[in-house]
């Protein structure tokens, strides 16, 4: 289903990105509409797949996850069986917040959030025991300068 978005839809999406926990009344007030039309637009965008899962963002450091690693992976394996095993291993590990397959010299990049370097090593050892990789480079983030889930609507 293709949905054409107008300015009101974009305003609603911006409000939801800013705080999905706010009430329909508040969103309607912010976008200059009333509650029922806003709800209908949200439902339409949800049905079209524009709006996905609603969630809350947690403060990783406040919960003790102080280390963020960006893990660059090169592999010499490109068969479907290897890829399936690799993707399964990633999906089963809650430490992996993001995983991307790349074009270029690096095959995959992972964003891994753990409590400390020792926890990263346990993650690394478990991963390489399940799937063969050619090269792994782990980069420790010293400071998070910007992090957002908001799209530039």
Automatic annotation (TrEMBL):
GO cellular component, one term: cytosol
GO BP, one annotated term: regulation of DNA-templated transcription
Transcription regulation keyword on record: yes
Entry keyword set: DNA-binding, Transcription, Transcription regulation
Domain HTH asnC-type: start-end pairs: 5-66
InterPro entries: ArsR-like_HTH, AsnC-type_HTH_dom, Dimeric_a/b-barrel, Tscrpt_reg_AsnC-like, Tscrpt_reg_AsnC/Lrp_C, Tscrpt_reg_HTH_AsnC-type_CS, WH-like_DNA-bd_sf, WH_DNA-bd_sf
Gene Ontology MF annotations: sequence-specific DNA binding
Pfam families xref list: AsnC_trans_reg (PF01037), HTH_24 (PF13412)
Record Gene3D superfamilies: 3.30.70.920, Winged helix-like DNA-binding domain superfamily/Winged helix DNA-binding domain
Source species, domain of life: Bacteria
Official protein name in the record: ArsR family transcriptional regulator
Native organism: Litorivita pollutaquae
